[in-house]
Amino acid sequence: MRKIYISACLLGAFFLTNCHDELDKVNPNYLTTESYFKTVEELDKGVVGIYSVAHSNLLVAREWFFTHVLRSPDFATGGAQLEAPRAQILNGGTSPDNSVVGSIWTGFYTLIHRANTVILNGPNASGDAAKRDLIVAEAKFLRAWAYYELVNFFGPVPLYTEPVNTVDGFKPRTAVADIYSLIMADLKVAQETLPATRDGAEQGRATSGAATFLMGKAYMQQGDYATAKAELEKLLGRYTLTDNYLDNFMEETEYNSESIWEIGFQGRSDNGYNWGNGDGPTAPQASVRNQEINPISWRNLIPSNDFLNEFETPENGAAKRDPRLDYTVYFPGDTFNNGNSVLTEAMQGGAGSSIINGTPIKVSWQKYTNLYKSDLGYQPGGINTRIFRFAEALLLLAECENHLGNQEKAVEYLNMIRDRADVMMPHYPTAQYPTGTKEQVFAAIMHESQVERGGEEGRDIDILRWIKEGKASPPYTTYTFNPARDFVLPIPQDEISRNPQLGAGGISQQNPNY
């Protein structure tokens, strides 16, 4: 996807159709939507522009990652250096003017605007009709992903299905069911049209498997476990778990057999990073995630005690220490930098420390850090973010089967994950996790989700669904969870101030208790 992103940087101006002043004037130096998107080749560049937003600082490179994980039980603050807007989310005091929340709102609606532009112009583009239809389906997948994220972050949100070309083209908040109707329609088109695989420079672009996976997740969020199961089963045989767990979080093993969809990044030797929206001919294509969590860098976030003590170890009565603990977390004494350096507590930034099995210790995240091959902490990373991976599909299938009363099949899926070549944990049932009842199997599912996917995006959405369905109970975050407020984030104050139609559809401008 890296070649794609470089060309994407040239497209930002094409999509900025919302002008604020002197609407009757057109800058002759810029192309417009009226003069562009006339061919399949131009349409394809439009899709590249959608990806440029997805991988920007507004979304996957930084703020999307933060918003998910700050709402997850897997993270704690690495110290007082955590910026105030992020500490707000982590501590449950998120306000409508929170800049992180505002960034993901802006990022996703920019992505939607660009997707709508491609979808609207697609039918009239000249050239290969099959490629044209594929490009439009790809834009619909990306729009569906954006709305899936928005509806799970904010609940009812404005629904735009065409580009906004006027200053008064605002929409009101739309009911969640109507948002999902568009999501499912878009994913159906993507599932039927997109290719099964991508090769070469197209790696990282959406596939039919990515559409199928997201469709399964979307059905689960709507409570339709039977249909979700039917969709997720389509992924069986198409993807396989990697032998090595860490292959899912390293740069050299991107686009592997377990990866269903990932957003591509590329590090730079000059450590450049673009703090904007990803556009521009020289915009670096890296992610700042490495710096945020790296032990010898900012270390803004660390593994929570809840997360660390979830792993099976002999100290807490298990027959074997789960290897994923040591793959996921750096402990003092671990080697890094290709084995040439040894990590100490003194080397780790911030004041945050942890307690594991009753013992105080200073530890840090290993997942998605460059430290395995470098001794540079303050370095934007080139590790692709795996948005969807097959292990999550197996966890979701286990949940579907258990919900539908098929406990034996649910346990089978869990044991497939534990059979990864470099994990090989004892099969369920175990002494700690019996599986004789539906409730016991679900406890094993919750456990396996945390130790397999801890620190990854989207676990917060699953846990919130479990709480809503009465399958799990708070505490869920580091703060006291308020079910009358905390299932969603506040609508950004900027949107409330700008959009006079926001509450015109019968849904309040702001979510309850914000």
UniProtKB/TrEMBL annotation:
InterPro entries reported in the protein's UniProt record: SusD-like_N, SusD_RagB_dom, TPR-like_helical_dom_sf
Record's subcellular location: Cell outer membrane
Domain SusD-like N-terminal residues, every copy: 23-219
Protein name stated in the entry: Starch-binding associating with outer membrane
Coiled coil, from the record: none
Keyword Membrane attached: yes
Superkingdom in the source lineage: Bacteria
Alphabetic keyword roster: Cell outer membrane, Membrane, Signal
GO CC aspect terms: cell outer membrane
Chain residue ranges for the region called Disordered: 495-514
Biological source species: Pontibacter ummariensis
Domain RagB/SusD: 258-514
Similarity remark: Belongs to the SusD family.
Alphabetized Pfam families for the sequence: SusD-like_3, SusD_RagB
